[in-house]
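Our consortium's second objective concerns turning raw sequence data into structural hypotheses that experimental partners can test. To show how far this objective has progressed, the report includes one record in full. It was chosen at random from the queue rather than selected for favorable results. The single chain below, 334 residues long, was entered without modification.
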Amino acid sequence: MSIPQSQKVLLIDGLSEGYEVIKYEDFATPIIVTDDEVIIKNRYTGVNYIESYFRKGIYPAELPYVLGREAVGTVVAIGKSVRDLKVGDKVSYIAGATFAQFTKVPNSTHVFKLPDTTSTEQLKLYAAGMIQGLTALTFVNEAYDVKKGDYVLLYAAAGGVGLIFNQLLRMRGAHTIAVASTNEKLSLAKENGAEFLINSKEDNILEKVQQITKGNGVDVAFDSVGKDTFETTLSCLKRKGTFVSYGNASGPVPPFPLSRLSPKNIRLLRPQLFGYVAQADEFRHYTEELISLIDSGKLNIKLFKIYQLYDYVQAAKDIESRSTTGKLILEVPQ
């Protein structure tokens, strides 16, 4: 197909706690420069909380910075050395700058070829499930290998990644203690596999965890909140427990002495998805498993809402207000 010289993108041109730096505007369309590059025309792209970290300056970014981390679409150009993809292939992939009509991916390591028969509804689910699904899937295997009977403390249990965590933990026979800010969210977490429920606005999290675990504490905590929950999470862990910190929803965890981990021999991790799927075979393994779980109906991906690309500001406000459940995606203009 013919690729236009300019395209519509969603970018930030400054750093701010607010939304005024988010712009929907024309931007140069990428072109193939090296032999291993791939250009994809995007159809749907997922909204992730991490976008706010770039906007607020928590994570560094070279401005102007095109947002986005995952998408589904069609291959429209490939470099001379690309052998596993061809123009016209439907794909699901992870890369930067996906809030755009066209995205250039440095190589095919994190591009997964989909069957030609993949439907529009499947594309929506894959766009909604890639990063959050792969995050939960790799974390319950590699950050901490969840075993039957484990007690698991899970924050943001009704968010996009939280609902997937709930389902995977149930498949493994774990006792999930779900934390969320409303009873409605907790009900959704329970529907997806949570066994015990804690309302973060009404309950004392530590007291409830001690009650549920008969004073032993949890085997592992998956904490995406960050600063506000660090001390509580540390107290909720059992001896030789594992603290998986993977988000900054309330801000980064302040520096602390490592000796804080010694009294209970706590293992602390700060993993990121890409550390587990850096190689092509790793990405393919987990993506095949994820898509199989979605297609078989064993894993339900809850779509909260589909926004137009130009309406990302509203999507950002919605996800950052913590009023959403499940996943938000953007439809990219064709």
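The partners drew two points from this record. The mean pLDDT is 96. Residues 6-130+277-331 form a domain with the Quinone Oxidoreductase; Chain A, domain 1 fold (CATH 3.90.180.10). Both points have been shared with the crystallography group to help prioritize constructs.
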